[in-house]
Design brief:
about 100 residues; alpha+beta; three-stranded mixed β-sheet; about 25% helix; about 10% strand
């Protein structure tokens, strides 16, 4: 004889949501400069806003923008000690920037 019981189970649910976005048109030099600046951003790639710059850099690379390791890239003109670091704060939706 068949038997059934109702239970609560954990299930991963993925959904698509509409969010506001920005379309940005850059020259190649501007895009390379953005990659150069992005390469100098530190912080946790998951727990801080650094994750956003990672996705921006990935999109620029996918579009054919040279990586910051290329010869004569604007990254080579950034002072070696320059860095922007995102640090996680205890409050869940507030971020800090240190220079």
């Amino acid at each position: 004889m068949a038997e059934a019981k109702r239970a609560t189970v954990d299930q991963e649910v993925k959904r698509v949501e509409k969010v506001q976005g920005i379309t940005l048109t850059l020259t190649m030099e501007e895009a390379e400069t953005l990659i150069a600046v992005g390469a100098k951003i530190g912080g946790d790639k998951v727990a801080t806003p650094r994750a956003h710059i990672e996705s921006v850099i990935a999109a620029l690379r996918k579009a054919g923008v040279r990586d910051f390791t290329a010869n004569n890239h604007p990254f080579q003109n950034i002072h070696p000690g320059s860095v922007i670091t995102f640090q996680a704060k205890r409050e869940p939706y507030r971020w800090g920037i240190t220079f």
